[in-house]
Specification:
heterodimer; A: alpha/beta; 6-stranded mixed β-sheet; 4-stranded antiparallel β-sheet; 9 helices; globular; B: mainly alpha; 14 helices
Chain lengths: 284, 343
């Protein structure tokens, strides 16, 4: 699962729909095909193509307002494309029954609200909603999923603490745990590290990498290119609502691309710890 | 990481204590409601001890049974069930709007029901059924208008409250205008209805209301879990597979229907829907606004308020006045508390 071969030979031609090499040929879990993504009157992407390889750790990067969160929302079924399509395992996402989709794709939203006074265990257990019926009682499977999510996020010591009393880093782990309790093979993360200090950022990224190693397909929107390069198997680079490059970070992340997309002259050197591309801005 | 998370504690027992304590408080509330009900059934010109009340309820001797079952039970049952319905309705709206002020009476449904009742009374069709029908129509129409005015591709809590307060103010002036134009006796009848009272509730008025509430109860139970998911924010709720806007509309309809049924039967009874869920939340220390505890608190609150209304002075006053006084004090406390917290 950790191989870093690029999925597309020509990564920078702006087309994310290029076929994967025949020997690998994993069918993508999520696909956006000529998707027109828009809120009320504002179009974000005129026609965007992107796909999420099964078992990948895909990171979507791009400047502010480039449409990366919007693409993620489309994958999360929060935004229906005006035209074109978004597919989950080859089926039109909008046509998949909501609870079934929610058992396949989980989301860590950018903002969530915790009801006043709710405890960590209670909040995490609400991630079980897609697995529950109208009147169905709490089952052993539910309890095991919640327990596993709490262990994974290192929250076992805080289960009965009110979420309001936690620090920002702990609170974000609770939301991650809620998404994990949903037990989805695909996990979408919308800027999961925003507002966290650097140690907590890497704690979370390590957790996501661990989940990826265990077989979860992880898709994250990140701002930090160096973190993206360090953790991603696949990178999707966006600008002005379009995908401008896809592939392994080492292939995609070039000085020219960073200059074009972010308007930032830079030097790219190997990360002394991991060997992945490290973006070092030049003096302007 | 390790510095942030204290040493692991035995989880199952701790959660069990938190849930157990809540369940215990909820049961205690139910017991209180039952005890107050039995006491209330014994109070009156012909006082009965709790034991005599229980014996009469289980079909005992003639006269006590007639008093308890025929005269006092409808009123006590009405207070319990209507109080519970108002408590649930308030809990639904406060949870949807994420605001302790977001109760159906603040949002204007009760005032709208009053307008509907006045129109019926003034136009001379003032049978009990006609008044109830007018109130029902007025309440539902107001709810619809408020919902549509607050709708912008979805309904948000604060917008609903502010639009509701505006519509309430408007309807208040309409009500005054209608009453000023009406003849004296008609205005008096309307005013009496508008004060909100359980005095005229007997079995014939109570049974249809009970049937309607019995129909609404399973709907509330079905919607309680979607309500809890909506508390997490729309994105999280929808990513869990909930149709957020549809669930919200269903909850609004059920919440309005509960208040409308009560208001049609008794006239507007203020503040039970506002205060009961918040009191319950503090008592039970629940996550979010509790439905069951809110219902029980509403039941106790309205029953006690009605006892006060009947016996505080030599001549009974409408219970709506008592809840108005209690509620006014409560609202001031709430507003002072909120403004302190936000400063």
């Amino acid at each position: 699962m950790t191989e870093r071969t690029p999925t597309t030979a020509a990564a920078a031609d702006g087309s994310g729909a290029a076929p994967a090499p025949a020997s690998v040929a994993p069918s993508p879990r999520l696909v956006a095909r000529s998707a027109h993504l828009a809120y009320d009157r504002r179009t974000v992407s005129e026609s965007v193509d992107a796909e999420i390889r099964d078992g990948s750790f895909t990171v979507i990067v791009g400047p502010n307002a480039c449409g990366k969160s919007t693409l993620l929302r489309a994958f999360a079924r929060l935004l229906k494309p005006r035209s074109g399509s978004v597919l989950l395992d080859g089926r039109e996402l909008a046509a998949v029954p909501p609870k079934e989709a929610a058992r396949t794709v989980g989301l860590l939203p950018q903002t969530s609200t915790a009801p006043e006074g709710i405890t960590v265990a209670e909040l995490v257990s609400r991630g079980r909603y897609p697995h529950q019926g109208l009147f169905r009682q709490w089952t052993t499977a539910d309890r095991e999923a919640v327990d596993a999510a709490l262990v994974e996020t290192d929250l076992t010591g805080l289960v009965d603490v009110a979420v309001d009393e936690l620090s920002g880093g702990q609170r974000q782990r609770v939301w991650v745990a809620m998404a994990l309790a949903q037990q989805t093979p695909v996990l979408l993360l919308d800027e999961p590290t925003t507002y966290l200090d650097i140690a907590h950022q890497y704690d979370l990224l390590d957790l996501f990498a661990r989940l990826h190693l265990q077989g979860t397909t992880v898709v994250a929107v990140l701002h930090d290119l160096n973190q993206a390069a360090r953790y991603a198997t696949d990178l999707i680079v966006m600008k002005d609502g379009d995908v401008v490059a896809t592939g392994a970070p080492a292939d995609v992340l070039t000085e020219q691309l960073v200059a074009d997309v972010f308007d930032l002259p830079c030097l790219i050197v190997p990360d002394p710890v991991t060997g992945t591309p490290l973006v070092v801005p030049r003096r302007r | 990481m390790t510095a942030l998370s204290p040493r692991p504690r035995p989880r199952p027992r701790r959660v069990a204590t938190a849930r157990g304590r809540r369940r215990l408080t909820t049961i205690a509330l139910a017991v209180v409601a039952l005890v107050v009900a039995i006491v209330a059934l014994g109070i009156g010109d012909y006082p009965l001890s709790p034991i005599e009340v229980v014996r009469a309820l289980s079909g005992g001797d003639g006269f006590a049974s007639t008093i308890v079952l025929g005269w006092r039970l409808p009123r006590v049952l009405a207070a319990l069930v209507f109080g519970a319905a108002l408590g649930v309705s308030g809990a639904i709206f406060q949870s949807l709007t994420r605001n302790p002020l977001g109760s159906p009476d603040v949002i204007g449904f009760s005032t709208g029901a009053y307008t509907g009742a006045i129109v019926v009374i003034v136009t001379g069709a003032s049978s009990t059924l006609g008044t109830a029908g007018g109130a029902l129509a007025g309440g539902l129409l107001t709810a619809l208008v408020v919902y549509l005015l607050a709708y912008r591709g979805g309904v948000q809590g604060l917008r609903l409250i502010i639009v509701g307060i505006g519509v309430t103010a408007l309807l208040h002036s309409v009500n005054s205008w209608l009453l000023l134009r009406a003849q004296n006796e008609v205005a008096l009848t309307a005013s009496f209805w508008g004060a909100g009272s359980l005095a005229l509730v007997g079995w014939p008025q109570l049974v249809p209301a009970l049937v309607l509430i019995a129909v609404l109860t399973p709907l509330v139970m079905m919607l309680s879990r979607p309500l809890r998911q909506l508390e997490l924010g729309d994105d999280a709720a929808r990513s869990h597979g909930l149709g957020a806007e549809g669930a919200r509309l269903a909850l609004v309809v059920v919440g309005v229907a509960l208040t409308a049924v009560v208001t049609a039967s008794t006239g507007p009874i203020a503040f039970v829907a506002l205060a009961a869920p918040q009191l319950a939340r503090r008592l039970v220390r629940s996550a979010g606004v509790p439905l069951v505890a809110g219902a029980l608190t509403g039941a106790v609150l309205l029953l006690v308020a009605d006892l006060v209304a009947q016996h505080i002075t030599s001549s009974p006053v409408p219970v709506g006045l008592v809840t108005l006084v209690i509620g006014g004090v409560y609202l001031i406390t709430l507003l002072v508390g909120e403004s302190r917290r936000s400063v």
